[in-house]
């Protein structure tokens, strides 16, 4: 192991944060009535990942970790979802891997059984029930 400290699964390292941070929406603090300072996005993300990794409920997120409240993390998750952050977070690293030729499609599997055949497609054969008489269906 190198001299770097091993990160916990919910902690976001600097290299990963450099990819994620530009994808997050920017928020300007109001000049008049600024209110409470917004929790740092990186801490909120780590709070979200902690809840998802440990499968605890949002309200049980320990304050001692410094990730804010569970409700704050949940709201940030919802905000990012509505802003399309998760879709972009999937697309950006995938594009980088494609550009580097680091994706091996030789072991890929594609299943489109959940997609409707818009131009018809063959109808599946009728399945017989347990009580069906095979001789009766000769028509």
TrEMBL record:
Q: Where is this region: Disordered?
A: 116-139
Highest taxon above the source species? Bacteria
User: Start and end of every Insertion element IS402-like domain?
Assistant: 14-90
- Point to the regions of Basic residues compositional bias: 116-128
Q: Which PANTHER family match?
A: BLL5188 PROTEIN, TIS1421-TRANSPOSASE PROTEIN A
**Protein name, as recorded:** Insertion element IS402-like domain-containing protein
Specify the species.
Streptosporangium carneum
Its lineage opens with: Bacteria, Bacillati, Actinomycetota, Actinomycetes, Streptosporangiales
């Amino acid at each position: 192991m190198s001299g770097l400290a091993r990160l916990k699964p919910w902690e976001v390292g600097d290299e990963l944060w450099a990819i994620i941070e530009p994808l997050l929406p920017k928020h300007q603090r109001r000049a008049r009535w600024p209110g409470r300072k917004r929790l740092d996005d990186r801490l909120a993300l780590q709070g979200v990942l902690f809840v998802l990794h440990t499968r605890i409920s949002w309200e049980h997120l320990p304050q001692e970790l410094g990730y804010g409240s569970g409700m704050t993390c949940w709201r940030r998750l919802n905000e990012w979802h509505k802003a399309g952050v998760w879709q972009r977070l999937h697309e950006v690293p995938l594009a980088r891997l494609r550009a580097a030729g680091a994706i091996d499609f030789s072991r890929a599997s594609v299943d489109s059984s959940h997609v409707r055949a818009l131009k018809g497609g063959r109808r599946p054969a009728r399945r017989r029930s347990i009580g069906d008489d095979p001789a009766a269906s000769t028509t």
